[in-house]
Predict the structure.
Amino acid sequence: MLTPSMEDYLETIYELMKEKGYARVSDIATILAVQPSSVTKMIQKLDEKNFVTYEKYRGLVLTPEGEELGRTMKQRHRMLEEFLRLLGVSEPTIRKDVEGIEHHVSPSTMRSLHSLVLFFEEHPEYRRAFEQFRDRRLQPVDE
């Protein structure tokens, strides 16, 4: 079982590997705003669980299982962002809310949210109708 913190690390390592081709402790520490010693401890835990291969002073790579989990975490993150955008949530709130909820949504709920997002992507006319409905409902009522 992964902790939310482990998920964050795997997602970050995955992003760095895709962007740069490697992930360094210092880069992970900067992105997650933690001390390098904390990163090293977590990397050792992830290594014990066979999600990364870590060699002191040489760096780390994701195992196939770690890469799959990192990709899943990234996809979940992106999908939640898109869902909240669909609802009309502001970008600063999206960033905050996704971090708050991404570790607490069940796989079945994620599949349902993903289906809804895909539905609106495939049927832009319904998305526009929803957005118009949402915008009318959010406007203050004349007194």
Notes: The beta strands are 52-55, 59-62.
